[in-house]
Design the sequence.
């Protein structure tokens, strides 16, 4: 479990193909992420996707990403900068919202532009996830916990509008967004359970 508060920006340094299932092994430079309390088998969210640490060395760690995960996410198949967050501890502050690290789908940036001292971010959300988007609700974008300011429904999903403060842009990989760029989306955990409970009640 995570909070969606990015702890550091790291760098995928090496991508190695795994022979068994078409997956890859990533070597990640942890950047400013403190690995002192991380052990092999612990979870770290990379671009919002929960991954298991398979080895550790000074300032670096490796994870193995299955073909299934590669097919359902973006930003894990190539070298590049990534958002990092260690798993939540019970004593930690919940600064964002409850995040599982299970990417639900891929969105696409419609607009990313400066607006006064912040940035306006619009994301096209696919039809399968649109019903989970709510004004003033939470969504995770590339591992970052964000608040939805507005929702515009359409025939093929919806368009969500988000305001990014300067700090969020400065300390996460969201700074490199541009129209057309794909992003990892995770829906709010509460919305997920509400749908399940509603469906059970209707049945």
Sequence:
């Amino acid at each position: 479990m995570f909070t969606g508060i990015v702890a550091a920006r790291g760098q995928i340094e090496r991508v190695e193909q795994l022979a068994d299932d078409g997956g890859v092994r990533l070597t990640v430079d942890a950047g400013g992420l403190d690995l002192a309390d991380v052990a092999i088998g612990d979870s770290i969210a990379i671009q919002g996707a929960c991954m298991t640490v398979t080895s550790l060395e000074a300032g670096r760690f490796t994870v193995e990403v299955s073909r299934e995960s590669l097919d359902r996410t973006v930003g894990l198949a190539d070298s590049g900068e990534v958002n990092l967050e260690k798993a939540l501890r019970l004593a930690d502050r919940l600064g964002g919202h409850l995040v599982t690290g299970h990417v639900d789908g891929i969105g696409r940036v419609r607009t990313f532009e400066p607006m006064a001292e912040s940035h306006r971010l619009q994301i096209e959300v696919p039809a399968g996830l649109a019903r989970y988007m709510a004004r003033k609700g939470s969504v995770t974008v590339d591992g970052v916990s964000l608040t939805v300011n507005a929702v515009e429904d359409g025939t093929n999903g919806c368009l969500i509008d988000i305001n990014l403060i300067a700090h969020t842009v400065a300390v996460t990989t969201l700074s490199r967004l541009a129209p057309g760029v794909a992003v990892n989306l995770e829906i709010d955990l509460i919305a997920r359970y509400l749908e399940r409970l509603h469906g059970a009640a209707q049945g």
The CA atoms of residues 53 and 181 lie 28 Å apart. Helices lie at 67-72, 127-130, 166-171, 189-202. The first helix runs from residue 67 to 72.
